[in-house]
Specification:
367 residues; 16 helices; globular; disordered C terminus; AI-2E family transporter; transmembrane
Length: 367
């Protein structure tokens, strides 16, 4: 390797190191981009009714802030009260389950008692994990100021991106060679549509799952139905893992009344997830980029490992955007054109008009 290649390699390694050190900031920026993209698409839809862009942006932000205020004033207070009761009822439910197991051991053959789990030993084995979770919860509460500052950062960045999206989009497009800028602009359009589809579909699925859970738990007369329903809807944002996490506290609370009610809660959640997976998701996310279940799970494990809890919630939009870039750039523009030099040169000539690229970028964002 000559001197220039060594310098390029060192610059690449330093760039990757810097990106790794600021990975949390980059994740917050991506969250702001997702939110700004959603509000910008909503503003465009309002503009179709003849509303000026400034008023449309104001209405979009007002709708978003209104939903937040509605959530905190209507949902959070009763949820906080019921969640406090939930923390007291879960240990009671476990104690009731342990009593029921002891009752069962006294009435079955001695040969079968060895196969019945001892809840006390399980709790003792899980005690280090519980202490670690409680420690993380206390750290989360003590770091509430940091969470607030990060939330404000996301909101400020969202406002900046939303105020003049064309300028930020133009800067990003100009990071690519001139012959490829129109192509990048088209890829950004696809990412924007996919992100809008994900946000809309996730919000609808979360609302429907939460509402069905509240209604079903209320019919079964399970305590803290509102808190459990909100928790089920919120955790539905996490595919695969969320539904499993939401059913455990609901079954524990149901054990306070009767064992059969806990089984009924499990059946209820199973039916709700089947309705959401087989009917709701295909309808509300028909235009979203499809992801294989294994890819979704691997993406969740990857992002939660490297980015923490926030990465778990943003795993799907990150995967959607990554899939579009891999499909459009790596597969279509590189692998599909491998060895076809004449076609590739023709394609580059067709997208080499830089002034038209910038104009297209401005029109596509300020529409």
């Amino acid at each position: 390797m000559n001197l220039g290649q060594w310098i390029g390699l060192i610059a690449l390694v330093l760039s990757l190191y810097i990106l790794w050190q600021i990975r949390e900031v980059l994740l917050l920026m991506f969250a702001a981009v997702v939110l700004a993209t959603t509000l910008n698409r909503l503003a465009r839809r309002l503009q179709r009714f003849g509303i000026k862009r400034g008023i449309a942006v104001f209405l979009s932000v007002a709708i978003f802030l209104g939903l937040i205020v509605l959530f905190f004033f209507v949902v959070v207070p009763p949820f906080a009260v019921e969640f406090q009761a939930l923390t007291k009822q879960v240990p009671q439910g476990l104690a009731r389950f342990n009593t029921w197991l002891d009752y069962l051991k006294d009435r079955i053959p001695a040969q079968l008692t060895a196969y019945i789990p001892d809840l006390n030993s399980l709790i003792q084995q899980a005690q280090p994990f519980i202490n670690r979770v409680l420690g993380n919860s206390l750290a989360l509460v003590s770091g509430s100021l940091e969470v607030l500052l990060k939330t404000l950062l996301v909101l400020v960045l969202t406002g900046m991106f939303l105020a003049d999206p064309a300028a930020y989009r133009k800067v990003f497009v100009r990071l690519f060679p001139s012959f490829y800028r129109r192509r990048v602009d088209g890829i950004l359009d696809k990412c924007e549509v996919s992100l809008e589809g994900w946000v809309t579909g996730a919000f609808i699925a979360m609302s429907v799952v939460g509402l069905m859970s509240v209604i079903g738990l209320s019919i079964l007369r399970v305590r803290s139905a509102l808190a459990l329903g909100v928790l089920a809807g919120f955790l539905n944002l996490i595919p695969n893992l969320g539904p499993t996490m939401s059913v455990v506290p609901a079954m524990a609370i149901a054990l306070l009344d009767a064992p059969w009610k806990s089984v009924a809660v499990f059946i209820l959640y199973f039916i709700i997830q089947q309705v959401e997976s087989n009917f709701l998701t295909p309808i509300v996310m028909a235009h979203q980029v499809s992801l294989l279940p294994a890819v979704t799970l691997i993406a969740q494990l990857f992002f939660v490992t490297f980015f923490g809890f926030l990465g778990l919630f943003l795993a799907l939009p990150l995967t959607v955007v990554a899939k579009i870039w891999v499909q459009e750039v790596l597969i279509k523009d590189v692998l599909d054109q491998w060895g076809d030099k004449s076609h590739r040169e023709t394609e580059f000539v067709l997208v080499s008009d830089e002034p038209q690229t910038e104009k297209s970028a401005e029109n596509s964002v300020d529409e």
